[in-house]
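Contributing new complexes? Match this layout with L6N33NVT.
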Amino acid sequence: MTKTGVLLINLGTPDSPSVGHVRSYLSQFLNDPRVIDIPWLSRKMLVNLIIVPFRAPKSAKVYKELWTDKGSPLLYYSEQAKELLQQSLGEGYDVHLAMRYKNPSIPDVLETMRKKQYKKIVVLPMFPQYASASTGSAIEEVMRVMKSWWVIPELKIISQYYDHPLYIDAFVERGKKYNHHEYDHVIFSYHGLPERQVDKVYNEGLCSDHDCEHEITAENEYCYKATCYATTRLLAAKLNIPQEKYTVSFQSRLDQKWLKPFSDEVVRECGRKGMKKLLIFSPAFTADCLETIIEIGDEYQEIFHEHGGEKVQLVESLNEHPTWIACLKDLAVR
Ligand SMILES: C=CC1=C(C)c2cc3[nH]c(cc4nc(cc5[nH]c(cc1n2)c(C)c5CCC(=O)O)C(CCC(=O)O)=C4C)c(C)c3C=C
Ligand SMILES: [Fe+2]
Ligand SMILES: [Fe+2]
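Output block (do not edit by hand):
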């Protein structure tokens, strides 16, 4: 075989919005030691006895609101990106899609890929900013499966690409649909992480000892907080949004020791200050999902409204955007 196999990986979503499927998804996801990074016994007790039993019924209700006749948006947008990338790459490449949690699973998809005897495999997680809980976990799972292969082909693993010009341009093009001058404030809301997870990036000191809000250095280039801020600087510069008109924030926290400021609190504060219209980008996600459509589109709209605001406008995720597909192509062939 002379072909190259490309493996796109996204986070994963339940098989259906039923409580049983959501429970099974949350259980696989939150039992991952890169996601809940505490000692084994504490994680088992916290996740299996507290978080999953209480969260599954509530999350299932939200997943029911999110679900469409095409299924979960995260999965169908990722499948669409896979199809378009395949068309763009042409015959020398086979593009596959796997999900870190649930289906299509990494072991199943890799087994299909093993049988194709590719000369080379490109592992391309759909997370522009590296986090151990997302990219790190996906790569670890690929390595776990591939280590038992007799033939391990040439392998290229892409760990992050937050500053890839085509990724930035794709979000800029999405953002240009809305004139930011018509909004009181712009929020760049990234998925949150426990602070201790960014601290673990460093050999010496903590994240707070580095100037992660302002610069990328050799020490912090894999710090998720630093790359979220760097992504924002690139986007804001291209969109001509002055520094005083935007805020970087972090959403979806599980407790108070997550990266701050929290997006819901920023939205609340904007309402209290008398702002009426907010524009929100969510650049850590490359496909619309529960965290964008429901958390930003519905829940933040409600919070803003309760505090005097009028409109929260979510900028659509990259989904099937041609410039995003061009970015994936460049990452795969480069
Ligand atoms: C940017 C990528 C992501 C990182 C980093 C990440 C870390 C992370 N997430 C949780 C807990 C939950 N996340 C949930 C949903 C979810 N998370 C991501 C991406 C990242 N998560 C996506 C794309 C989604 C949406 C999936 C979908 O089906 O649409 C959920 C489930 C929803 C809910 O019950 O609220 C949980 C739980 C942790 C703990 C964590 C890092 C420590
Ligand atoms: Fe998450
Ligand atoms: Fe940092």
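Reviewers usually confirm one structural detail per submission. For this one: The mean pLDDT is 97.
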